[in-house]
């Protein structure tokens, strides 16, 4: 009996030693193993700063509206629903610079293409509720809203309208998106919001093309004010400066100021991935200058940026459009 018991203990001891060796090897592998090249690149990229769940504070929040139902309702080419993920897939590959090392990024889907296909107006209201919750939760964060079509700015403005007594939009666009159509779509968001908002609404349009906007589209809003700086006027620097000086006088502590960029405002040579390619669009230098003027405005909140109408289906194989706007946003944050 004793011999058998001793033999059992010996086997158990050997087994324990094997387990210890295995655990040590596993520990060594997990802690001492050199990281792979792909792991190193991930650690050096913005992707490593994105959190799977929102923390108590996020520095940069991407609100994704991955639907282009509104674009199709406007007769545009579908594909913009793919833009948020396509844009972020390139943006996340960009390197972390020193000022971003301790920052926290987060992304959140706020729209539902399925809901929009069933009842578009009701889906817009539901999206506005999700955006309102996001705006309230991340009120101290840099917000970037990624469409989808420009119809998604209507739910964003509706959400902001619950929080602010005055809303100002600086809209960089080739089209006014103030169509008078009864059915809402990507060409109606600003008139739609102006008709419903009880506060002060000011729409400042930059880069519009005269041949791309009908007289009815340019008709006055029933409520709110709209002013235009045409594409051909951007060559006169003093007009752009005066435009923003006027905006400055309107901004107070109760004001939300939104930087809305419709991707088809940018020249088609740099921005082919849109539904309506612009042959006379803004250059990157002009876009950068407009951003600087926006950041100089005395609003009290963190920047609120919207990027709309990107369409990866019509982008180049090298993702030129995604690269162009990713590098622009990288310089903004």
List strands and helices in order, with pairings.
Layout: H1 2-32, H2 37-44, E1 60-65, H3 69-73, H4 83-91, E2 105-109, H5 113-118, H6 120-137, E3 142-147, H7 153-163, E4 166-172, H8 189-196, E5 200-208, E6 225-230, H9 237-250, E7 255-262, H10 284-295, E8 304-308, H11 320-332
Parallel strand pairs: 1-2, 1-3, 3-8, 4-5, 4-7, 5-6, 7-8
Verbal overview:
The structure is a single chain. The chain has helices spanning 2-32, 37-44, 69-73, 83-91, 113-118, 120-137, 153-163, 189-196, 237-250, 284-295, 320-332; strands spanning 60-65, 105-109, 142-147, 166-172, 200-208, 225-230, 255-262, 304-308. It has eleven helices and eight strands. With 333 residues, it is α/β, with parallel strands linked by helices. Helix 4 crosses helix 11 (320-332), helix 6 (120-137) packs across helix 7 and helix 7 runs parallel beside helix 8. The radius of gyration is 25 Å and the shape is globular. It folds into two domains: 1-33; 42-332, Arginase, Chain A (3-Layer(aba) Sandwich), CATH 3.40.800.
């Amino acid at each position: 009996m004793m011999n058998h018991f001793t033999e059992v203990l010996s086997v158990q001891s050997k087994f324990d030693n094997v387990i210890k060796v295995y655990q040590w090897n596993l520990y060594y592998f997990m802690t001492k193993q050199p990281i792979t090249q792909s792991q190193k690149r991930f650690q050096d990229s913005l992707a490593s700063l994105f959190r799977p769940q929102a923390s108590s504070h996020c520095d940069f929040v991407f609100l994704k509206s991955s639907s282009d139902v509104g674009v199709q309702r406007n007769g545009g080419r579908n594909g913009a629903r793919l833009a948020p993920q396509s844009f972020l897939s390139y943006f996340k590959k960009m390197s972390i610079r020193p000022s971003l090392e301790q920052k926290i990024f987060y992304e959140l889907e706020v729209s539902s293409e399925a809901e929009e296909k069933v009842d578009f107006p009701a889906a817009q209201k539901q999206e506005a509720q999700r955006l309102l919750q996001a705006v309230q939760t991340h009120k101290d964060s840099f917000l970037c809203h990624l469409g989808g079509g420009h119809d998604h700015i209507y739910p964003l403005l509706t959400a902001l309208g619950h929080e602010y007594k005055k809303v100002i939009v600086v809209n960089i666009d080739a089209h006014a998106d103030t169509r008078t159509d009864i059915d809402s779509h990507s060409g109606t968001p600003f008139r739609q919001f102006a008709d419903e908002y009880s506060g002060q609404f000011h729409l400042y349009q930059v880069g519009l093309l005269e041949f791309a906007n009908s007289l009815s589209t340019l008709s006055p809003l029933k409520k709110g004010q709209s002013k235009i700086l045409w594409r051909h006027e951007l060559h006169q620097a003093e007009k752009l400066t005066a435009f923003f000086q006027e905006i400055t006088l309107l901004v107070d502590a109760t004001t939300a100021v939104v930087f809305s960029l419709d991707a088809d405002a940018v020249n088609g040579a740099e921005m082919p991935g849109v539904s309506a390619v612009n042959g006379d669009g803004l250059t990157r230098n002009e876009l950068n200058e407009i951003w600087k003027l926006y950041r100089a405005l005395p609003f009290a909140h963190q920047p609120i940026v919207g990027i709309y109408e990107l369409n990866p289906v019509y982008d180049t194989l090298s993702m030129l459009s995604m690269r162009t706007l990713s590098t622009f946003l990288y310089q903004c944050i």
